[in-house]
Amino acid sequence: MSAISEAPSSYRHSAVRPSSLALLREAIREIGSRRRLIQYLVQADLKKKGSDTLLGNLWWVIDPLLQMLVYVVLVSVIFVRGQDDYPLFIFAAILPWKWFTSSIQDGITSVVSQEKLIKQIQFPKIVLPFAATTSGIVNFAFGMIPLGLLLVLFYGNRLTPNLAFIVPIAAVQFTFTLALALFVSSVNVFFRDLGNVVRHILRLWFYLSPGLYAISTLNDSAILKSHPTLQAVAEANPFAILFTAYRSVIYGSSQPNLPPGPPAWEGLVGLLLGSLVLLALTTLVFKRLEPSFAKVL
Amino acid sequence: MSAPAEVVPGSSTHAIDVRDLGVRYNLRFTRKTTFRQSFSGLLRRGEGAKEFWALRDVTFRIVHGESLAVIGPNGAGKSTLLQVLAGIIIPSAGSVDVRGQVSSLLTLGAGFDLELTGRDNILLAGAFLGIDSGEMKRRMDSIVQYADIGEFMDAPIKTYSSGMRARLGFAIATSVDPDILLLDEVLATGDATFRAKSKIRVLELVRGAKAIVLVTHDMNWVTEYCNRAILLEKGHVVIEGDPAEVVRVHEERSARAKAERDAAIAAGRPVG
């Protein structure tokens, strides 16, 4: 009855519709039994991203720095505003955001890009978005290099052991990212223009999240003050929680001016629980759609 | 034709048991390009419809030691049938029971990662097929030897010629030792020398496997290596039985269909 390809025999009946719980268990088993495949896929992805460019994987270090520079020029030179140590202030948001967007964008195409293989052999498709999201972790880890450089060279006063809290914060972000990646990778099989839509949603999401500005700036804005519901939405925004958490351990706070400290755990725990529920739901969506992949691709 | 009828339902002697199998495609979600490639013959007929049955009411059973040929015109559902047997497509109606390790040589070169070396691709393919990595490393030498592409083994696949890709794909696909072998026109790849070499390997696998399902347009293979055959047309089984008989019916029917098409063209009517 098992759908795993290495099972020596299989019986498939059109009337058999597995329960949600069975599907979830199957998904966990598939990820566990195909660790090696995920590892190879991640390695292949990293190798590919490093080749064909002059500087190779060095781009993972340079890219966030350049992006930070663009925002610094835009905000502190043109708009003449910003916080103390603004480069570090926004760098704490750029790094996790780059990780998130690249994981989602790789996730969207992860299933569709293996079209040929899906039509020719039976394997658990869930490993594809899982590997795409996992290889993003490496990308994020490389981003720690420029962060370390910035702190050591320019902002030594903000260098604290609180940086270790990045790990649990990143774990929460990974859970949330994985949940969304499973969803977009499966839906993209049916609607190929999803990538175009998502690109714009992501851009808007970033500007609405307190990445370039502090969350207090958002809360002070006229529109949020007059609409309490909007304010609740803004505070529940996963990236409001994540950016604020990263910023408090890397940068501290600008208003009032505080050194780095531990993040606000309530928000993170809430986000983790919400992400786990979301992950269960999107895993189910993925597993329900999976049988149709070979037909639609 | 005699053996399968005698098998008691539910007995363990069968390798494949297909009952009332139907595969339905939902046309709203199937891109026309893919659809056109797969079912070119049925495209015009299915247009406007919301769904399409690639296979309908297909029932057959294969016991150990049998080799079944599946023949029929393009778009008859032959490849869909293999996909169902390989577990890639789940039946929309009926049931499929496959007992034993299935390997399909459909996999020639599919899923190669062009940026990776041949060696990395062997490991990747093994991981996709669900083969244990230690086992795959043991097989590595024989695959490398069989593919016979020399130093290219450590170069990215994108530098390979199409012949080299086919050879590596074939070497990986045939490195397995399956109970049930699914073959889909595998001999049409590579240069003449490799074709001859690959034919020998396929025959070895055919002899070693407990059951075989072969999709082919080469009627010599059907009569030479198969002890049973079914003819599919538009998703339905037209006839099942002795290979020579089925081939004869197929050739008759395709000759008649061709004559009708020619007549239609001559009369200036649209073909369809």
Describe this structure in words.
The complex is a heterodimer of chains A (297) and B (272). Chain A has 297 residues and is mainly alpha-helical. In chain A, 72% of the residues lie in helices and 2% in strands. The radius of gyration of chain A is 21 Å and the shape is globular. Residues 1-8 of chain A have low confidence and may be disordered. By secondary structure, chain B is of the alpha/beta class. Chain B contains ten helices and nine strands. Chain B has helices at 2-6, 32-38, 43-46, 78-85, 118-129, 133-147, 162-173, 192-208, 219-225, 243-266; strands at residues 14-26, 51-63, 67-71, 93-99, 102-104, 180-184, 211-215, 228-233, 236-241. Chain B has a six-stranded mixed β-sheet, sandwiched between helices. A three-stranded antiparallel β-sheet of chain B has the order 2-1-4, covered by helices on one side. In chain B, strand 6, helix 8 (192-208) and strand 7 (211-215) form a beta-alpha-beta unit. Chain B is globular, with a radius of gyration of 20 Å. Mean pLDDT of chain B is 80; it is low at 1-11 and 32-38.
Strand and helix layout:
The complex is a heterodimer of chains A (297) and B (272).
Chain A: E1 9-13, H1 20-33, H2 35-50, H3 59-78, H4 86-110, H5 115-120, H6 127-153, H7 166-190, H8 194-208, H9 215-220, H10 222-226, H11 228-236, H12 238-250, H13 265-296
Chain B: H1 2-6, E1 14-26, H2 32-38, H3 43-46, E2 51-63, E3 67-71, H4 78-85, E4 93-99, E5 102-104, H5 118-129, H6 133-147, H7 162-173, E6 180-184, H8 192-208, E7 211-215, H9 219-225, E8 228-233, E9 236-241, H10 243-266
Parallel strand pairs in B: 3-7, 3-8, 5-6, 6-7
Antiparallel strand pairs in B: 1-2, 1-4, 8-9
Helix pairs in contact in B: 5-6, 6-7
